[in-house]
Amino acid sequence: MSQQPEQADRRLTVAIVGCGVIADNHVRALAAHGGASIVSLVDPVVPARERVAGLVEQVGMDRPAEFADLGEALAERPVDVVVILAPSGLHVRLAETAIQAGSHVVIEKPLDVSVPRARRIRELADEAAARGLVATVISQHRFDPASVVVARAAHSGGLGVLTSAVASVAWWRTQEYYDSGQWRGTWDLDGGGAVMNQGVHTVDLLVWFMGPPVAVYAHTARLAHERIEVEDTAVATVRFENGAIAVLHATTAAYPGLTVRVQVHGSNGSAVIENDQLAYFASGGVADAAANADPTRSANENRAAELVEASELYGSPRGADAFVVGHRRQYDDILDAIRSGGAPGVTVADALLSLAVVRAVYLSATLGREVLVDDVLQGVYDDQDVHTEQAAEGQKQEIPA
User: Fold this and answer.
1) Mean pLDDT, residues 342-365
2) Among 62, 76, 147, 149, which one is most buried in terms of CB atoms within 10 A?
3) Domains in the chain, start-ordered, CATH in brackets?
């Protein structure tokens, strides 16, 4: 592929690797963008490939070629962009294959299940950037209007001194969900449970809003599910470089499944995002009188309706494409970066930092003490095993009769 910015009038060619359920979001998001064509599908499972190929046709593209192996696909037809949707433990090998072939790379979350392998992906991303290639990771909720509003206020001082945050993912997953794939609920390929899979986007937002994380202290448990190695419930405290502290909660054992909620608090304001929509935003008061030019206006008035469209306010009906729109927004950013030769809004380094926080949760829960995030990033714990059967059994807690 060319190392120069892509021509604006040329549709980019895309190969999708991994034809599970999440592939549907990517297919629909790319179709909605309109600037790319899916020309190859890669998955060793033939029915999975055929299902996604049918969806590609349904959204108005030509039926893509099908392959069992990425190397084989790229040898037969080089593409501009490789989208990696395979199980997390396979990401580094696939990313290396794609970048060596000269393709831009998009990786679905999490970056990987292993920090050492994720560091290798960061090295590959640096090598890619030197060749004019984009490597990025899906963190679609950074592009939600509510998230943009809160991040802008947190980074600009609009909330004053950041003091604390509460991030909660209270979801429910059935036993059938975990039984539906041999890789689900495993350390090697799933990389963890409620935090790694369901909570990783919320961890990413927490880090984006609050700044560099310093340390994590956590507890995890497996309480409501069987035949999985990983946790279905976790609670952690996170300390940040700016002195702020946060509580992180993630579970797939909250029947029947409630909301994802992120609260950010500061000395001059607070914000709440619930289910990706802005629920509350207040900024002002004696610390910033200029923020309230109207003297009749209360400093704690909820200004959320002024900052996002009605459809982005908590409680507003979500459209049929609610689960696709975030990916579409991020693809706007990704494809623009590819065409312009610029940097994507989410880097591999961003994703590595979020992964390090998740890994710190598991390490802290296993070791029973606080874990420094920088130690995780620097490889201090690379040999620490939190994946043993003994560790998994240690998370099991019987519910009293």
Assistant:
1) 96
2) 147
3) 12-137 (3.40.50.720), 142-320 (3.30.360.10)
164/265 Cα distance (integer angstroms): 5
Give the list of residues 6+ apart from residue 225 with CB closer than 8 angstroms, or none. 173, 175, 178, 185, 232, 252, 253
Supply 182's token pair: 């041999």
Q: What is the pLDDT of residue 307?
A: 96
Angle between the 115-130 and 348-367 helix axes, to the nearest 10 degrees? 170
Number of CB atoms found within 10 A of residue 133's CB: 22
Give per-residue pLDDT as tens, 220-257.
999 999 999 999 999 999 999 999 999 999 999 999 99
Which CA distances in Å does 231 have to 11, 49, 108, 166, 194?
Answer: 43, 31, 21, 20, 6
Is residue 312 left, alpha or beta, with left meaning phi > 0 and alpha meaning psi from -120 to 50? Answer: alpha
Reduced to 3 states (helix: H, G, I; strand: E, B; else coil), residue 391 is: helix
- For helices 22-33 and 46-58, the axis angle rounded to 10 degrees is 30
The structure's pTM equals 0.89
Q: How many residues does the chain have?
A: 401
- Answer for the pair 23, 85: CB distance below 8 angstroms, yes or no: yes
Q: DSSP strand E in 23-171: where?
A: 36-42, 65-67, 81-84, 104-107, 135-137, 162-170
Instruction: State phi, psi for 251 to the nearest 5 degrees.
Output: -155, 150
State the average pLDDT over residues 325-333: 96
Tokens of 318: 């979500």
- Give the separation between CA 115 and CA 89, rounded to whole angstroms: 11
